[in-house]
Design goal:
The complex is a heterodimer. By secondary structure, chain A is mostly helical. Chain A is built from 10 helices and no strands. Chain A has a single domain, classed as Orthogonal Bundle (MetI-like fold), CATH 1.10.3720.10. Helix content of chain A is 74%, strand content 0%. In chain A, α1 packs across α10, α3 packs antiparallel against α8 and α4 crosses α6. Chain B folds into 2 domains: 239 residues, P-loop containing nucleotide triphosphate hydrolases (Rossmann fold, 3-Layer(aba) Sandwich); 64 residues, CBS domain Like, CATH 3.90.1280.20. The relative contact order of chain B is 0.13. In chain B, the strands form 3 sheets. Chain B has a 6-stranded mixed sheet with strand order 6-7-8-3-9-10, with helices on both faces. In chain B, a hairpin with a 2-residue loop joins β4 and β5. Chain A: Its main location: membrane.
Chain lengths: 249, 311
């Protein structure tokens, strides 16, 4: 009985989310009490569906770019030839993380203009660290006798990386991507302050016009997306780890 | 044939392997035995160049092992290690197919070889081939590890404490399996262990190492009968010595004419086991049977006791 309860809850959340994005009108009576002076209860300056898709696209593009760069960097510094760059790359990635996203936006706008670009830059820099850290941990803690066997079998450095190291690191790297995606989903809302088309637009519109219904619906969609995507990636991670006989907590 | 000529390995100031020379005859098992830190594993790893020597040459069938790129050399040499090191993300069949795949064998040949090895190791290819290593028992994992090392039909197999992680009953079985497979394929095996019992049981020749040097390299009987110095003698263990010497001989070589009462002992059992049987049965003699169950004579306590001392 208990095993399918979480799955059922997630399914209900997904149905609710899709229904709300596709046909927000149905939920108008629920949000109406949160508005004042006859203000609209449902965001009316654009389609919620389009904004959600654009929001997801922004996060996807930034995460894919961050994954490629972070994993490549982690591979580079775990090779014998790149070992001396390890401290440097660590501090570089840490700097990316310690910049507040708003500051990145403020600095990026003069350089690349308003719109999606500064948001992508901020999300990219923000996504690097968790993926890099996890990839580094995974690649430096591979089981010694497995690596010994790979060398002893006559695999070249490249073959060891592609056939053994990366597959074995996949679950942990995936964990980093998951963190990065969730941070990105939340941070992308700030992008709307520099005119990126994201769900932040709804929240900001609500804040400007003192409309609690707008703030709530923007926030809830982002939260529901984050929860569902987090769970989905966790499931993939568990599957990958289980195949290797490793249990994740 | 493997010729190790004046091999030395130094890490900074520490000499791990010190001017070692050994010749290992083809189709034999050489066991390198020593305490931990004696340099035995380093010596083994220099044969397939997982470690590069500071000086000296290792020749395989007359060719310097540095004459081909290291990864190519390793594909031609089997390598089995303690804790087997199976790839956890690959199935049993994929694990065994590792080296043939690297060598670019075609699919049918790989499948035939994997099936052959799995059958040889009493693992049903249909049932176990698609499983992942963590679904197997320790003994099965060890067998897959050796099967993987043998997959590309190497002439030489290097083994680093391959039975170290097994419990005693499975270990004995694994040792018997290895001996049978060595006979079948005629592989030259170099096995590293710290267990003198295993060395005496498995080795055609034993090299005893301490502090990077080979103290004695000889047949097991020679090592037991005439240890080169105090260290070898300690390692042999004076209280075990007569029994180890007996364990080298087969019952059929100690058969005396005549009959005896009691359960017959097979002729290919070790003399040590026969003595144990005799002592436990409380009889001075027991009959001996050959492979077909035919009685061929008897074995006596008196006869075995004589053989428990070097001639």
């Amino acid at each position: 009985m208990k095993a399918w309860l979480p799955a059922l809850l997630r399914l209900a959340l997904l149905v609710l989310l899709v229904a709300f994005i596709a046909s927000p009108g149905w939920f108008e009576p629920l949000l109406r009490p949160l508005t004042e002076n006859g203000a609209p209860a449902i965001y009316n300056q654009g389609s919620l569906l389009t904004l959600t898709l654009l929001h997801l696209r922004t996060v996807l593009v930034a995460t894919v770019a961050a994954t490629i760069v972070a994993v490549a960097l982690a591979i580079l510094v775990t090779r014998p030839a790149g070992a001396e760059f390890l401290p440097l790359s660590r501090s570089l990635v840490n700097i990316g993380q310690s910049f507040p996203p708003v500051a990145v936006l403020a600095l990026a706008v003069p350089a690349v203009g308003f719109g999606e670009k500064p948001t992508l830059i901020a999300l990219f820099l923000y996504g690097l660290l968790p993926i890099f850290e996890n990839a580094l941990t995974a690649l430096t803690t591979l089981p010694g006798n497995v690596m010994e066997a790979a060398r002893g079998a006559g695999m070249t450095g490249w073959q060891r990386l592609v056939k053994v190291e990366l597959p074995l690191s996949a679950p942990v790297i995936l964990g980093g991507i998951r963190l990065s995606v969730v941070i990105g989903l939340a941070t992308a809302t700030i992008g709307s302050t520099v005119a990126a088309k994201t769900l932040g637009e709804v929240i900001i519109a609500g804040l400007i016009s003192n409309n609690l219904a707008f703030v709530l619906q923007g926030g809830l969609i982002v939260a529901a997306l984050a929860v569902l995507i987090y769970d989905g990636l966790s499931a993939i991670e568990r599957y990958a780890a289980r195949r290797m006989g490793r249990e994740t907590a | 044939m493997i010729e190790i000529e004046g091999i030395t390995k130094r890490y900074d100031e520490t000499t791990v392997v010190d001017n070692v020379s050994l010749v290992i005859e083809p189709r034999t098992i050489a066991v390198i035995v020593g305490t931990s830190g004696s340099g035995k594993t380093t010596l083994l790893r220099m044969i397939n160049r997982l470690v590069e020597p500071t000086s000296g040459v290792i020749k395989l069938d007359g060719a310097d092992n540095r004459s081909v790129p290291d990864y190519q050399l390793r594909r031609s040499i089997g390598y089995a290690i303690q804790g087997h090191g199976l790839f956890p993300h690959r199935t049993v069949a994929q694990n065994i197919a590792t080296v043939p795949l690297l060598l670019g064998w075609d699919k049918d040949r790989i499948k035939a070889r994997v099936d052959e090895l799995m059958t040889l190791y009493q693992l049903d290819p249909q049932a176990y081939g698609p499983r992942y290593p963590h679904e197997l028992s320790g003994g099965q994992q060890q067998r897959v590890g050796v099967a993987r090392a043998l997959a590309a039909e190497p002439n030489v197999l290097l083994m680093d404490e391959p039975f170290g992680a097994l419990d005693p009953i499975i270990r004995t079985k694994a040792q018997e399996d290895l001996l049978a497979i060595q006979k079948r394929f005629g592989t030259t095996i170099i096995l590293v262990t710290h267990d003198m019992e295993e060395a005496v049981h498995m080795g055609d020749k034993i090299a005893v190492m301490d502090a990077g040097k080979v103290l004695q390299y000889a047949k097991p009987a020679e090592i037991l009968a005439r240890p080169a110095n105090g260290f070898v003698e300690t390692l042999v263990g004076s209280s075990e010595r007569p029994f180890r010497l007996l364990s080298l001989g087969r019952v059929r070589d100690a058969v005396e004419p005549g009959g005896a009462e009691g359960e017959a002992i097979p002729g290919d059992a070790s003399q040590r086991d026969a003595l144990a049987e005799l002592l436990w049965a409380g009889r001075p003699a027991l009959p001996v049977k050959d492979g077909d169950g035919k009685l061929i004579g008897r074995i006596t306590v008196e006869g075995l006791v004589k053989r428990a001392r070097p001639a």
